[in-house]
Amino acid sequence: MATSGTDLSKAVWRTSSYTNGDNGDCVEVADGLTGIVPVRDSKRPHGPAVVVAARAWLPFVRALKAGELPG
């Protein structure tokens, strides 16, 4: 789900542990928002963010770690 209608102005973003250190793929997530986990490209902080339901976040991260999703 995209951020249309979701106010992320008070979101506190952190760099994901999946971000590489050479300014390549940079992903940020915002924690502590009730029911959602926003994700954005750190190179485009004012660009769009994808908002994932909090209940779907952990299974998504587990699938990434297990190599079950295309990379």
Instruction: Indicate the overall shape.
Output: globular
Order of helices and strands: EEEEH
Q: What assembly state would you assign to the polypeptide chains in this entry?
A: single chain
Alpha plus pi helix count: 1
Rg computed from alpha carbons, rounded to a whole number of angstroms? 12 Å
Structural class category: alpha+beta
Residue fraction in strands: 25-35%
Helix content: 10-25%
Description:
- With 71 residues, the protein is α+β, with helices and mostly antiparallel strands.
- Helix content is 17%, strand content 25%.
- The chain is built from one helix and four strands; from the N terminus they run E-E-E-E-H.
- The chain has one helix at 54-65, and strands at 13-15, 27-30, 36-41, 49-53.
- Strands 1-2-3-4 form a four-stranded antiparallel sheet.
- The longest helix has 12 residues, at 54-65.
- The radius of gyration is 12 Å and the shape is globular.
- It starts with 12 loop residues before the first strand and ends in a 6-residue tail after the last helix.
- The model has no long low-confidence stretch (mean pLDDT 83).
